[in-house]
Automatic annotation (TrEMBL):
Keyword Transmembrane helix: yes
Organism of derivation: Crateriforma conspicua
Entry keywords, A to Z: Membrane, Transmembrane, Transmembrane helix
TM spans (from-to): 55-73, 85-103, 109-130, 142-161, 181-197, 204-221, 227-244, 251-271, 333-351, 371-388
Protein name (Swiss-Prot/TrEMBL): O-Antigen ligase
Length: 419
């Protein structure tokens, strides 16, 4: 069964390259799936382990082809770069310059360079592929069905302690990133539940989308990713009812109850398989660990001089100071890029939230457009919450990319009124 799913994934990837020039939103959808589908392919064949970056580069080039075709087709003269993209670019420039006063300049530059392909793909290229409602809707619908195939593939794979088994090294199992698996499952779940309300109801399609969403929730449980489960619950409970109320004047209770019930039953099964991961004591211990790392970073920042307070101690300096990043992106930005970095980061979140809610509440805008912005706001909340427990600023491209997507869509509905 897994071999069939892998062949289907490869076929979809191949067809996507041929269709992205007409359906550019495919580029964004593929980028969302990048790390997750890489794990499935690496589990199925050592070829994808040997050429570990092949899937990433392929998806990146497909997204680039989509962006270029959209640029050629629609032109760029009338477009203004979203506020979020400008602010993020300034934040990147600050991070790049700050490597010069980092405790380990060579290491900081190396980390920055290794992040560039993902930054360009996720923040600059992929969002442009969905810079209007039509193309973003393509991304959502593609993520529902292609994502469903990938989710089934992940569930059929052999899991190690938490991630998909992709090989063995020195007698130890090598696993894919469980957080990436769970994050993509969260994206698919959000796309499924919101897309239920963006089209006329067809019963079989309704239940198919609910079923895929339920499998996505089970995938999160199987990966043991507690933070992703919490972030998904908050994002759905906050934005799904609001979107349904504003956009289609209906209730979202049915979909939420069904997913909660299926998630509960699946949770019982997977929690029983890995009880230590889901014990309250384990969750509290992990929380204390995250809080301690954040407090340590704040203490280092407070002990710095005026220069460090304003411009930080240098990009990726946390690795030299603590041996690891603080697992809290806002705190990391304060430490490494100082108040200057934080004053660039906060407006990105504020502008995105302001634009998203305004579009959602504007009844003069089509319900389809408002459902789309609901998807983006749910994703923005999902990735935003995850930044308080995992990842670094340079690695938080899904959050910043989603913010840029909101900026592109906002341009369509507020010409000349960018905040």
């Amino acid at each position: 069964m897994l071999n069939f799913i892998v062949l289907l994934i490869l076929a979809i990837l191949g067809v996507s390259a041929l269709r992205v020039h007409k359906h550019q939103g495919i580029g964004l959808a593929l980028c969302w799936s990048m790390i997750a589908v890489e794990g499935v392919l690496q589990h199925s064949s050592t070829f994808f382990v040997q050429y570990a970056s092949l899937t990433n580069y392929y998806i990146g080039f497909v997204a680039l082809a989509g962006a270029i075709s959209l640029l050629v087709k629609e032109g760029y003269g009338r477009k203004v770069l979203p506020t979020q993209l400008l602010l993020y670019t300034l934040l990147l420039v600050l991070a790049a310059v700050s490597t010069q006063w980092s405790p380990d300049t060579k290491s900081s530059i190396a980390i920055l360079k290794s992040s560039v392909p993902f930054i360009v793909t996720f923040v600059f290229v992929a969002p442009f592929c969905s810079s209007n409602d039509k193309h973003f809707n393509t991304a959502v619908e593609f993520s529902v069905f292609y994502g469903g195939v990938v989710i089934v593939g992940m569930l059929l794979c052999e899991f190690g302690q938490r991630g998909i088994t992709i090989g063995y090294r020195g007698g130890r199992t090598v696993e894919s990133n469980p957080l990436a698996i769970a994050s993509y499952a969260g994206v698919v779940c959000i796309c499924c539940l919101f897309s239920i309300y963006s089209h006329k109801k067809t019963k079989w399609l309704l239940w198919l989308k609910i079923g895929i969403a339920a499998l996505a929730v089970l995938t999160i449980f199987k990966s043991g990713s507690r933070g992703q489960l919490f972030a998904l619950a908050v994002a759905l409970l906050l934005w799904l009812p609001l979107t349904v109320k504003f956009a289609v004047n209906r209730s979202a209770i049915t979909a939420i109850v069904i997913i909660a019930f299926i998630g509960f039953l699946g949770g019982i099964f997977f929690v029983d398989q890995n009880p230590n991961r889901w014990r309250l004591s384990g969750i509290q211990s992990a929380q204390r660990g995250r809080i301690d790392m954040a407090l340590d970073a704040i203490n280092v920042y407070a002990d710095g001089d005026l220069f460090n307070w304003i411009l930080g101690v240098g990009s990726s300096a946390s690795y030299k100071i603590f041996g690891i990043y603080p697992h809290n992106v806002p705190v990391e930005i304060l430490l490494e890029e100082g108040l200057a970095g934080l004053f660039l980061f906060i407006p990105i979140a504020f502008v995105s939230g302001r634009q998203g809610y305004r579009i959602l509440a504007d009844r003069s805008i089509s319900f389809q457009s408002r459902v789309n912005i609901g998807v983006l706001m749910a994703l923005f909340t999902f990735f935003g919450l995850l930044m308080f427990k995992q990842g670094s600023m340079l690695g938080s491209t899904p959050f910043f990319g989603t913010a840029v997507c909101i900026g592109w869509i906002a341009q369509l509905h507020s010409p000349g009124k960018q905040p």
